[in-house]
Specification:
- The protein folds into 2 domains: 5-126, Arc Repressor Mutant, subunit A; 139-248, no CATH class.
- 45% of the residues lie in helices and 14% in strands.
- It is built from 7 helices and 8 strands; from the N terminus they run αβααββαααββαβββ.
- The strands form 3 sheets. The protein has a 3-stranded antiparallel sheet. Strands 6-7-8 form a 3-stranded antiparallel sheet, covered by helices on one side.
- The chain is elongated and about 70 Å long.
């Protein structure tokens, strides 16, 4: 696959929607492209299109968005909602891989900002996307038929939250007295994230609801009889099969 202006336009649309969490209005997506300086625009592209109160480059991307919908990479079922699909995620990652391996001289419209973002997304998916998706789906265990749809909308935000929390707790289990972790083959310490109030029950993705656990405690949280008390300061009481434990916070 060779680099073309059309591919550059497709990628910038997909990345901008991905930046917004997987869905955004036309204005939000195009404004994000402008604010992030993802495209090199000519003077003519910065002019208003004849007979339309819209800049040429914005009109061009809106037209290219229709092709992405036709290909199944965007969901066009809701008016003025630019929403990426699971196939769109895969296509975006494929393009990011292609762009990251190509010479900068091949690009006509992409700025260094877009190329760096593409490289970051490539690394993000190759390093830990599958692990985050597995954890995310485990917390959707009661909504098996909705896993794919919900994952598309939330996986990006979930990745950031879990990365931040795992870093905060050094990939060690938050259950008091445990702190278990181990070094993986990739030299990173291992841990898992868990939603105290499951996503299937409309649980949130903020720090109050997501805890970092070792694999054993994570399995217990899913399959044992568990009672979670309200957080008090830096601790939260947790009963696992009637055994008293505490989740500790920093």
């Amino acid at each position: 696959m060779s680099i073309t202006i059309t591919l550059e336009e497709k990628l910038v649309i997909l990345i901008s929607i991905y930046d917004l969490g997987g869905c955004g209005t036309k204005e939000e997506v195009l404004d994000n492209i402008d604010e992030k300086c993802y495209l090199n625009l000519t003077q003519s592209e910065k002019q208003y299109k004849e007979n339309r109160h819209e800049l040429v480059w914005r009109n061009t991307l809106a037209f290219e968005r229709k092709h992405l919908v036709q290909a199944g990479y965007l969901d066009g079922s809701i008016r003025n909602q630019w929403k990426i699909t699971s196939d769109g995620i895969d296509y975006m990652v494929e393009l990011c891989n292609l762009f990251s391996q190509s010479s900068p001289s091949l690009f006509k419209k992409s700025t260094s900002n877009l190329l760096v973002r593409a490289l970051n997304i490539k690394d993000e998916f190759s390093n830990d996307y599958s692990d985050r998706e597995k954890e995310f789906q485990e917390d959707l265990i009661d909504l098996e038929n909705e896993i794919e749809q919900v994952s598309i909308n939330r996986i990006k935000r979930y990745q950031k939250i879990t990365r931040d929390l795992k870093s905060k707790y050094g990939n060690q289990c938050q259950i008091e007295g445990c702190n278990f972790t181990f070094v993986q083959k990739n030299q990173k310490h291992y841990s898992e994230a868990h939603h105290l109030n499951p996503l299937a029950n409309n649980g949130s993705q903020d720090e109050e609801n997501v805890v970092i656990l070792c694999p054993n405690h994570h399995r217990m949280m899913h399959y044992a009889i568990v009672e979670v008390s309200e957080r008090k300061g830096f601790k939260r009481k947790l009963l696992i099969s009637n055994v008293e434990n505490y989740i500790v916070y920093k």
